[in-house]
Design a protein that fits this description.
- The complex is a heterodimer.
- Chain A is α+β, with helices and mostly antiparallel strands.
- Chain A folds into two domains: 7-229, 2-Layer Sandwich (PmbA/TldD fold), CATH 3.30.2290.10; 233-447, no CATH class.
- Chain A has nine helices and 17 strands.
- Chain A has helices at 7-27, 83-99, 131-146, 216-229, 247-260, 263-267, 328-334, 356-363, 411-418, and strands at residues 32-48, 51-69, 72-78, 154-171, 176-194, 197-207, 239-245, 288-290, 313-317, 320-321, 348-350, 366-373, 383-394, 397-410, 419-422, 432-434, 437-445.
- Chain A has a six-stranded antiparallel sheet with strand order 3-2-1-4-5-6. Chain A has a five-stranded mixed β-barrel with strand order 7-12-13-14-17. Chain A has a five-stranded mixed sheet with strand order 10-9-8-11-16.
- By secondary structure, chain B is α+β, with helices and mostly antiparallel strands.
- Chain B folds into two domains: 4-236, PmbA/TldD superfamily (PmbA/TldD fold, 2-Layer Sandwich), CATH 3.30.2290; 243-476, no CATH class.
- Helices cover 21% and strands 40% of the residues of chain B.
- Chain B contains eleven helices and 23 strands.
- Chain B has helices at residues 4-12, 23-30, 88-98, 133-150, 212-215, 218-236, 257-264, 269-273, 334-340, 373-378, 429-434; strands spanning 37-53, 56-74, 77-83, 114-115, 154-172, 176-195, 198-208, 243-250, 294-297, 318-323, 326-327, 348-349, 358-359, 363-366, 382-394, 400-412, 415-420, 423-428, 436-439, 444-445, 450-454, 457-465, 468-476.
- In chain B, strands 1, 2, 3, 4, 5, 6 and 7 form a seven-stranded mixed sheet that branches. In chain B, strands 9, 10, 11, 14, 20, 21 and 22 form a seven-stranded mixed sheet that branches. Chain B has a five-stranded mixed β-barrel with strand order 8-15-16-18-23.
- In chain B, α4 runs parallel beside α6 (218-236).
- The longest helix of chain B is centred in the middle third of the chain and has 19 residues, at 218-236.
- Chain B is globular.
- The N and C termini of chain B lie far apart (62 Å).
- The chains are: A alpha+beta, B alpha+beta.
- The interface between A and B is large, with 79 and 76 residues.
- β3 (72-78) of chain A pairs parallel with β2 (56-74) of chain B, so a sheet runs across the interface.
Chain lengths: 447, 479
C-alpha cells in the first residue's frame, strides 16, 4: 500500500472533489448545499508477551453532502468516490430533501459569517516510523511494564499508532476550507495476579506531535503501577462519604455538564440545565472557558462544523452559566446566536490550585474514584449512578483498593453544592479536561 | 434464483473488473512464507435513516460504504489492511501492507475454493427500496400522533427508523468461499413527559433482519408508543432508588444484558486464549447456580444478532456456554480456535471490512426454568424489581460488571410498591451467576435493539432471559 500522505496534495485533492460535488448537487437541483470530505492514513501495531501481535494499515476517505431544496434538507455519505457514486450521493441527498419537512432552523453560514483565513494551529506533524520499528517500540513499552513486578503475569499488549488526516468543508455560500491534523499514540494494558485477585489497568499517551509523546518506558511503568495498585480490592460499606475523582474520571463528569449546556439537549428540553442561563451552576470560584487556538492541542481547530471561526470564550464565569454551547442550527432553534461551537467545545479546562495529595488529605475519609463503568448519567434530570473502583481513604491516606461499588448523586447538586475542591492536575490529553474533583458527599453503595 | 455468492459477487466484484475466478490467485498471493491463514472480506453496505422530532421528519440521511479487508495470520500474529477501491491492484497493495507482519516467499500450492451453501435464516432482501420515503415518514408521523394522544404530559417525541443492507463475500486460504446478504431494520422511539416542572424520559425499540412490511405495522406503532410513554410516566412518579446489597428480581427479555456482561464477554475465545478472562481455564467447573443454562445462538430466524455465516465465512451455530451451571465452552473465531486447538464456533465477527474479526456474541440468552415471577417477588422482603435497562460494561479480568436499570420498582414484603429512579447495578460475574436462586418459565428474547461494543467495534446482538431472582446484588441508588 502506498504509505505516503502529503497533506498539501490531499488538501488540494479534497478541495477539488468538494467543489465538484457542490456543483453536482446544484446541477441536480439543490438550492444550496454543504459538503464535507475527509481522508486519512494510519498505522497501528500491537505487541503482546514480547512478540509482535497485530499490524493494521488504515486508509479511509469519505464525503458527505447536505442538499437544500427550499427549506428542506437531506444528506448522503459515500466512501466510493467514483463519478457515478458521487452523482448518486448528490441525487440521494436531493431526493431526501424533496420529501422531508421544511426546517427554517437549518441554514448555512453566510459569506459574512464564514472563516476568512485558516490560521496554522500546529496540528499536523508526521511521524516517520516504519512498522517494524513501531513493533519494536511496542515490545519495549510492554517489557518496561512487565519487568516492574513478578505479579504482573500477563498482558493485553502494548500498542503504537500514528495517523494523519485532512478534512475539507465547503458550501454553496462560498466556504471552502481545509485543515490537516495528525495523532500519534502509545498505550499499554497489563494484568496482575496475586492469590485469587486478578486485575487489569492501562496507561496511554497521545499527541499531535510525536516529539511530545510521553516516553514509552514511562507508559509501561505507569500501566504496571496502576495495575498493581488495584490488587486485592475490597468492597466498602454502603454510606454517604466524600468522593474524589481523579482527572481521568473527572473529565467525564465535566463532559456531561457540557452536554447539558449544549444546544441539542436544550432545544429538545432534555437537559437538567434548561433555562439556567445567568444562574449559578458551579461554586462562584469556578470559571470554565475554551481555548480553541492552543497550538498543537488535542481539541484545537480554527473553525467549527459550520465553517465559523472558533474563538476563545467562557461558558461559566464565577460559577454562573454565561453562555450555551451552540451551533448555527441549535442557535436558530433557540432563537439565539451561534457560539461557533458546531462539533462541541475545544480545549475546555477546569483547573484549580491544589495538588492531588493535598486533596486526599483534605478529604480525610472517603473514596477516590479512579475508574468508572457503564453509562448511568441521566442528562434529563441530572441523576448520576455509575459503577466504580478506586481506593478507600482514612486519615487523609490511601488504605486499600476498593471495587464493585457504585457512586451516585445528582450532577446539578454535585457541581453546584457539593464540589469543594478542584486539583491543579489537569489531564490535557482530552479536549474537555479537568483536574481532580472533590465532592463533599455522594452515596457509595458497596456491601 | 441466484445464490448469495452469485448475487454479491456481481455487485461487489464486477464494478472493479473482478470475477469469482480471480479470487483464488489473489488469495494465493497472500499465502506467502510462514503464513498460516489469510482471507479477503468484501463488503458493500447501504443505510438509510429517518428521524422524527417536533412532530415532523426534517432530517434523513443515506450512506454507502464498500471495501475489502485483507488479512494474513502467522501463529498469533495478524497483519491487516483494507482498501475502499475493490480492484485487483488495490487488493494486492493492501496484501503487501498486511504481509509486513511476516517474512518469506510464496510457498503454498494453488488454492481451491469450495463455496459454502448459505443458509436462509433471513431473506436476502434490501429493505431500503421496499417502501417509498413518504410512507416511512408517514409511519413516523403516526407514532408522534399516537404518543401525544396517549397522554397530554408527553412534551417531546423522537423516533428513528434505521434501515441497513449489507452484502459480504469471504474467501480464505483454507478454501472458504461464502457470501451473505444481510438486511437489518430498527425502529426506536424516545419520549419526554413533563409534570409539575419535572421531566422524565421513556424509550422503546424494535427490529431484526426482516422487511419493512413486517416492521412498520399499526400494532408495532401502538406497542412502542405504549411502552415508551408508560415508562416515562412511571419515571415521573419514581422515588429515590435504595443503595446497597439486596435481592433483585429481573424481568425477562432485555434484562438479559446481565448475561451479555456477566457471562458473555468473559467467554470470548480471544480473552481465554490469552488467559486474561476470569473464566480462563475453568471449562468443566461450576461457574453459575445449578439450573442455569446459557446459550449463544446465531441461527435464530430473523433475529438481530443472527447471521447465516459469520464474517469469516463459517456457519453460525448454537453454542452452549454454560449447562446446568457448568462451564462448557467458549465462543471462537478461526484464529483463536486454531491456537486453542478447538473448532471455530461461528462467532468471528467484525464491524466492517475496515476492522479485524474477533470472537463476538450473536444472540445470548438463558434457558427457561420453572418459577413464576409472582413467586419471585413474593419471596423478597426488601429488594428491587428491575424490568428495563440501558447498557452495561464488564472488566473481563476481574469479573466486575455493571448494567443500568432505566425502569425499576421497590419490592417490600413481597409486593411491588413504588417505582424508583434509574440506578446502576454492579456485581462480580461468577458470584452473581451463583446467586441466582429462581429461574422463570417465561424466557423471552429482547425486541431487537442491542449493540455490542468491543475494542472500538460495534456489532448488532441479541440478548434474552427468563425472569430471574438474584439473592444479592449491589444497587447504586441514592437512598
Amino acid at each position: 500500500m502506498r504509505a505516503e500522505f502529503n497533506p498539501e496534495h490531499e488538501k488540494n485533492r479534497l478541495k477539488a472533489i468538494t467543489s465538484q460535488v457542490l456543483d453536482r448537487a446544484r446541477h441536480h437541483g439543490a438550492d444550496a448545499c454543504e459538503v464535507g470530505a475527509s481522508a486519512s492514513l494510519g498505522l497501528e501495531v500491537q505487541a503482546r508477551m514480547g512478540q509482535p501481535e497485530q499490524l493494521e494499515m488504515m486508509r479511509d476517505q469519505s464525503i458527505s453532502v447536505t442538499a437544500f431544496v427550499g427549506q428542506s434538507r437531506g444528506s448522503a455519505t459515500t466512501t466510493d468516490w467514483s463519478d457515478d457514486a458521487l452523482d448518486q450521493a448528490a441525487q440521494a441527498a436531493i431526493a431526501i430533501a424533496r420529501v422531508t419537512a421544511a426546517d427554517p432552523a437549518a441554514t448555512l453560514a453566510t459569506s459574512e459569517q464564514i472563516i476568512r483565513e485558516v490560521p496554522d494551529l500546529d496540528l499536523d506533524h508526521p511521524w516517520e516510523i516504519a512498522p517494524e520499528a513501531a513493533l519494536d517500540m511496542a515490545i519495549e513499552i510492554e517489557r518496561a511494564g512487565l519487568d516492574c513486578d513478578v505479579r504482573l503475569t500477563n498482558s493485553d499488549g502494548a500498542s503504537v499508532s500514528t495517523s494523519r488526516a485532512v478534512s475539507v468543508l465547503g458550501s454553496s455560500e462560498g466556504l471552502l476550507v481545509a485543515q490537516a491534523s495528525s495523532l500519534h499514540g502509545m498505550s499499554c494494558v497489563l494484568l496482575a495476579e496475586e492469590g485469587d485477585s486478578r486485575e487489569r489497568s492501562y496507561a496511554f499517551t497521545h499527541d499531535r506531535n510525536p516529539n511530545r509523546l510521553t516516553d514509552g518506558i514511562v507508559i509501561g511503568r505507569e500501566a504496571a503501577e496502576k495495575t498493581l495498585a488495584r490488587l486485592n480490592p475490597r468492597k466498602c460499606e454502603t454510606g454517604e462519604v466524600p468522593v474524589l475523582f481523579v482527572p481521568e474520571a473527572a473529565s467525564g463528569l465535566l463532559s456531561s455538564v457540557i452536554s447539558a449546556i449544549s444546544g441539542g439537549a436544550l432545544y429538545r428540553k432534555s437537559s437538567y440545565l434548561l433555562d439556567r442561563i445567568d444562574t449559578p451552576i458551579f461554586p462562584e470560584w469556578v470559571t470554565l472557558s475554551e481555548a480553541p487556538h492552543l497550538p498543537g492541542a488535542i481539541g484545537s481547530s480554527a473553525y467549527d462544523g459550520d465553517g465559523l471561526p472558533t474563538r476563545a470564550q467562557a461558558f461559566v464565569e464565577s460559577g454562573v452559566l454565561t453562555r450555551y454551547v451552540l451551533s448555527l442550527y441549535s442557535a436558530n432553534r433557540l432563537g439565539l446566536q451561534s457560539t461557533h461551537n458546531a462539533g462541541g467545545v475545544r480545549n475546555l479546562r477546569l483547573s484549580g490550585h491544589m495538588d492531588f495529595d493535598a486533596m486526599v488529605r483534605q478529604m480525610d475519609r472517603g473514596v477516590i474514584v479512579t475508574e468508572l463503568m457503564g453509562q448511568g448519567v441521566n442528562l434529563v434530570n441530572g441523576d448520576y449512578s455509575r459503577g466504580a473502583s478506586g481506593f478507600w481513604v482514612e486519615h487523609g491516606e490511601i488504605q486499600y483498593p476498593v471495587h464493585e461499588i457504585t457512586v451516585a448523586s445528582n450532577l446539578d447538586r454535585m457541581m453546584r453544592d457539593l464540589l469543594i475542591q478542584v486539583g491543579s492536575d489537569v489531564d490535557t490529553r482530552r479536549s474537555i479536561a479537568s483536574g481532580s474533583l472533590l465532592f463533599e458527599s455522594m452515596m457509595v453503595a458497596g456491601s | 434464483m441466484p445464490t448469495p455468492i452469485q448475487t454479491v459477487s456481481e455487485s461487489l466484484l464486477a464494478p472493479g473488473g473482478l470475477t469469482l475466478d480471480d479470487l483464488p490467485p489473489l488469495v494465493h498471493e497472500l499465502a506467502m512464507g510462514d503464513v498460516d491463514f489469510a482471507d479477503l472480506f468484501f463488503e458493500r453496505a447501504e443505510g438509510e435513516s429517518f428521524t422524527l422530532e417536533d412532530g415532523e421528519v426534517k432530517d434523513a440521511s443515506f450512506h454507502r460504504d464498500s471495501g475489502v479487508g485483507v488479512r494474513t495470520c502467522v501463529g498469533d500474529r495478524q497483519g491487516f489492511a483494507y482498501t475502499q477501491e475493490i480492484t485487483a491492484d488495490r487488493i494486492r497493495e493492501a496484501g503487501q501492507a498486511a504481509a509486513a507482519i511476516q517474512k518469506g516467499q510464496s510457498k503454498q500450492t494453488a488454492i481451491a475454493l469450495s463455496p459454502i451453501a448459505t443458509p436462509t435464516l433471513y431473506r436476502p432482501i434490501n429493505p431500503i427500496s421496499e417502501r417509498a420515503s413518504h410512507e416511512k415518514i408517514a409511519y413516523l408521523l403516526e407514532i408522534d400522533r399516537l404518543a401525544r394522544q396517549r397522554d397530554p404530559r408527553v412534551v417531546q417525541v423522537q423516533a428513528t427508523l434505521s434501515i441497513s443492507y449489507r452484502e459480504v463475500l469471504v474467501c480464505a486460504t483454507d478454501g472458504t468461499l461464502a457470501g451473505d446478504v444481510r438486511p437489518l431494520v430498527r425502529l426506536s422511539i424516545s419520549v419526554l413527559a413533563e409534570q409539575g416542572g419535572r421531566r422524565e424520559r421513556g424509550g422503546a425499540g424494535l427490529g431484526g433482519r426482516y422487511d419493512l412490511n413486517r416492521l412498520l405495522t399499526p400494532e408495532h406503532a401502538t406497542q412502542l408508543v405504549t411502552d415508551a410513554v408508560d415508562q416515562a410516566l412511571i419515571n415521573l412518579e419514581a422515588v429515590d432508588c435504595p443503595a446497597g446489597e439486596m435481592p433483585v428480581v429481573l424481568g425477562s427479555g432485555w434484562p438479559g444484558v446481565l448475561l451479555h456482561e456477566a457471562v458473555g464477554h468473559g467467554l470470548e475465545g480471544d480473552f481465554n486464549r490469552k488467559g486474561s478472562s476470569f473464566y480462563s481455564g475453568k471449562i468443566g467447573e461450576q461457574v453459575a447456580a445449578k439450573g442455569v443454562t446459557v446459550v449463544d445462538d446465531g441461527t435464530l430466524a430473523d433475529r438481530r444478532g443472527s447471521l447465516n455465516i459469520d464474517d469469516e465465512g463459517h456457519l453460525t451455530q448454537r453454542n452452549v456456554l454454560i449447562e446446568d451451571g457448568i462451564l462448557k465452552g467458549y465462543m471462537q473465531d478461526k484464529l483463536n480456535a486454531r491456537l486453542m486447538g478447538v473448532p471455530a464456533t461461528g462467532n468471528g465477527r467484525r464491524e466492517s471490512y475496515a476492522h479485524l474479526p474477533m470472537p463476538r456474541m450473536t444472540n445470548t440468552f438463558m434457558e427457561a426454568g420453572e418459577a413464576t415471577r409472582d413467586d419471585m417477588i413474593a419471596s423478597v422482603k426488601k429488594g428491587l424489581f428491575a424490568v428495563n435497562f440501558g447498557g452495561g460494561q464488564v472488566d473481563i479480568t476481574s469479573g466486575q460488571f455493571v448494567f443500568a436499570a432505566s425502569e425499576a420498582y421497590l419490592i417490600e414484603d413481597g409486593q411491588i410498591t413504588a417505582p424508583v429512579k434509574g440506578a446502576t447495578l454492579i456485581g462480580h460475574g461468577p458470584q452473581v451467576m451463583s446467586a441466582i436462586s429462581m429461574i422463570g418459565h417465561d424466557v423471552a428474547l429482547d425486541t431487537g435493539i442491542g449493540v455490542c461494543g468491543k475494542n472500538g467495534q460495534s456489532v448488532p446482538v441479541g440478548v434474552g432471559q427468563p425472569s430471574l431472582k438474584i439473592d444479592r446484588l449491589t444497587v447504586g441508588g441514592t437512598a
